[in-house]
Structure formats: C-alpha cells, structure tokens
Amino acid sequence: MFDDAKVIEKKGVVKELQWTNPHVWLQVVIDEDGKKTEWSLEGGSPNTLSRQGWRATTFKAGDVVTVRFNPMKDGSAGGLFIGAKFDSDGKTIGRW
C-alpha cells in the first residue's frame, strides 16, 4: 500500500490527529501552488505511540509542521507517517 522506497517531505497545517485504534491518523492540509490538498498520514497504534511519548494532544489543529512520510503506491494524498518537525519551536517527533 505504501511505497517504502520513497520518502516525501512536505510542509502543511494540521487539521486534526485522529487518536483511535488500531492506528492514529494525522490529517495535514498542504498548499502547493495555491491548491490545498488534505493528506492522510497513518501512524502506529495509540498504545505504541504513547510509550514513545506521543499524546492525543501532540498535534493540534493549526500547528504548522513539516512531515516526512512514505507515499501511497497509487499516488493518492496519503502515506505512512515517518516524522514531523514543528515550525513553532523546531521540535521533532518520530524518525527525523
């Protein structure tokens, strides 16, 4: 489903973090050349991510982030979350 041979890096605005089982989903709106597209990035399970320091409040709507992810093989606006860097303070999460 994901192209693990490719890593994409894009800057966008967090729409929401869906903190649900079996996997969390990060929704990020990315503006490319005036066209806004919502990207769905799949993460691990809430249990696993909690042990890595994540919380349901780690990402808040409106946060500006640069995300890295493995894209979907079919080219749709989604992927497997690798890491993120927050513009506000430079903090990183995941594998950066």
Write a concise keyword list for the protein shown above.
mainly beta; 96 residues; OB fold (Dihydrolipoamide Acetyltransferase, E2P); 5-stranded mixed beta barrel; 1 helix
Give the topology, please.
Layout: E1 8-18, E2 25-32, E3 35-42, H1 46-51, E4 64-71, E5 78-86, E6 92-94
Parallel strand pairs: 3-5
Antiparallel strand pairs: 1-2, 1-4, 2-3, 4-5, 5-6
Q: What would you say this structure looks like, in words?
A:
It is a single chain. This protein has 96 residues and is mainly β. 6% of the residues lie in helices and 49% in strands. It has a single domain (8-91), classed as Nucleic acid-binding proteins (OB fold (Dihydrolipoamide Acetyltransferase, E2P)), CATH 2.40.50.140. The protein starts with 7 loop residues before the first strand and ends with a strand. 20% of the residues are buried.
